[in-house]
Amino acid sequence: MGEGGGGTLHVVATPIGNLGDVTLRSLEVLRAVPLVAAEDTRIARRLFARFGIRTPLVPYHARNAAARTPELLAHLAGGADLALVTDAGTPLVSDPGAELVAAWAARGGRVVPIPGASAVLAALVASGIVAPRWAFEGFLPRRGPERHARLEQIADDERATVLFEAPGRAAATLGDLAATCGADRPAALCRELTKVYEEAWRGALGELAARAAGEPPRGEVTIVVAGTAPAPRTRARSRPQLEPAARITLTEGRARVARRVAAGEGRAAAARAVARETGLDRRALYRAGG
Known about the structure:
Layout: E1 8-12, H1 24-32, E2 36-38, H2 41-51, E3 57-59, H3 65-77, E4 82-85, H4 98-106, E5 110-114, H5 119-126, E6 134-139, H6 144-156, E7 160-165, H7 170-181, E8 186-191, E9 199-204, H8 205-214, E10 221-225, H9 250-262, H10 267-278, H11 282-289
Helix pairs in contact: 3-4, 6-7, 7-8, 9-10, 9-11, 10-11
């Protein structure tokens, strides 16, 4: 029972592949609640059959959320508990459920997370990339300025980045990452995590892009990209080692970018390098070079 007299909404993580990774607490909650809202009831029934769970299921996914959310809120408001699950992993993390959780929390309802298996953390620890700090991007936009902007943010981030991708688009995304971050940026592609055919490809982005193009990965894909090298720190009283921008024009800067690109470097990586050398604006160099 929630604080305001309503029911408790349990946000339950489920296995990302290997059913043996389910937690004891998850099983307890799924057995105890009167109703479970599932992204795909067919997938949820496999888990239920494995562990003898008989709790009723109701479908709750992106296509029916607008109609189903009021029904589930009414269920909770009546004092009954509810568990929310997705096909794999934790609801809301690149999965449905955000609207329901936000609406119930806004009413003062009780929301309880039940943690479990995570493709993000599994990929991070399997990647071989040192990542004391990291960011999660989910799925990138498929095209357009928003995709380009997100790729630029990843390229400039000193933290490692974790993102999801469909297997059929993995090669294109790795290629875009190589062009933006530099073909030599360390990365890993992890597929089928916790499953029989689990595999981690490790190497430079350019190498991984070429491999994915010739050997398209199968199954669920998680990509980890190393962060950019931090800029050298200078003492407060020392002058930065830059060529005076007054002596380096944008025209000369764009020419340097063009030479690097002609030598095989990605345009975004070339623009960043020239910006560090000259103090010129990186975005102006990139746009001028386009």
